[in-house]
Structures are given as structure tokens and as C-alpha cells.
Amino acid sequence: MFYEPKDGHGLPHNPFNAIVSPRPIGWISTRGADGGRNLAPYSFFNAVAYAPPQVMFASTGAKDTLRNIRDTGVFCTNVVGHEMLHPMNASSAPLSRDADEFDRAGLTAIACATIDCPRVEGAPAALECRMTRILELEGDANYAIFGEVTGVHIRDDCLRDGRFDVTAFRPLARLGYKDYTTVREVFALDRPED
From 45, 52, 57, 156, which residue has the greatest number of CB atoms within 10 Å? Predict the structure, then answer.
């Protein structure tokens, strides 16, 4: 099969998200200028640079997350472990601006150290970020938000032999459609030498 996206795919469901998978989930927490908290998962998310460490996520629509980041210039990326599957899903509901996703999902928000923003208590890791740029992308209200990581929280039980061990919490990843997966096993692979 071949198709050009501009002409449509002819399938019952768009295969694009399933092709580009698995995708890590950035569970983005923010605080609005009014002090209200927001928490939402984004599967168009990834690390993009080492030094300084930087992450990005993409948002479709002028959501509360984007508005809060524009107002405050900060956000926190919380890592989602398998045990947080249901709270993560609960936080994805399209709630009103004054609703609190932390409360809806039954989560405790705790303060970040380097930015004025909440983070998810018990998350395997959390990356405190200062927004560096917001890019408007092609299409209807598509945005890419970039941030420099200014603080890193790691849950102690996720450190083993000096390494962040993803099998300790089994990170949740998004596939296509309504499908998710978790990382349960890892293997090492050396890069070839010259």
C-alpha cells in the first residue's frame, strides 16, 4: 500500500500514529497565571539534546497546557510508569479550564525545585523545564514546545547500580489508535567501531 496523506489513506483508521510508535508519553504539568494546576499526557514527546538537556512535545489545539506555558514560561515533564496507567488516562479528559486534573486522577501534586510548577508525586522521574521556544507548525493549531531541563527528580527505587532502570517501573508508551505498551525487557547493543 502507498498513499499520500493529502489524498487520504482509505483505511477505517489513520495508520500514521501506529507507524510512528512506540512513543514515550510526556505527562506535562503546568500552573496557570491564576495559580490553577493542569496535567495532561502528550505522546508526541521526546528528548532532543544532551547539553544542555532539552525536551520537546507537540500539542494540537490551544489547550490549557500551552496557555499556561505561554503565561509562566515553565512546565514539568513527568515520566509515566505502568502503575500510573489509569491516572494518566483520567488526566487526558477534556475538562474545563478551572478543573484540576491532579484531583480528577487522584494524584498528589508536589512542588518542583527550580520552577514554580507542580509535579506528580511518585512519578519514576520528573524533568523541570524552562520553555525555550514555541513553534507554530503547519496545520490547524499545531505547536511544538521546547524546554531546557533545569532540574531532574528520580525515584530512588528506579536507580540500580548507578543507572536509571526502566524495568523498575515499566514505562508506558503510546502506539496507534487506542493502543499502549509497556517496556518490560531491555537489551544492550554496542555501536560498531571504525
Answer: 57
Query: How many whole angstroms separate alpha carbon 142 and alpha carbon 57?
Result: 11
Cell numbers at 27, concatenated = 505527562
Give the DSSP per-residue string, 38-105: EEEEESSEEEEETTTTEEEEEEES--HHHHHHHHHSEEEEEE-BGGGHHHHHHTTS---TT--HHHHT
**Domain locations along the chain:** 20-182
Burial class (CB in 10 A: 0-12, 13-18, 19+), 19: exposed
CA distance to 35, 105, 161, per residue, from 99 (Å): 12, 11, 41
Write the DSSP symbol of residue 158: G
The pLDDT tens digits for 85-134 are: 999 999 999 888 889 999 999 999 999 999 999 999 999 999 999 999 99
The fold of the 20-182 domain, in CATH, is Pnp Oxidase; Chain A (2.30.110)
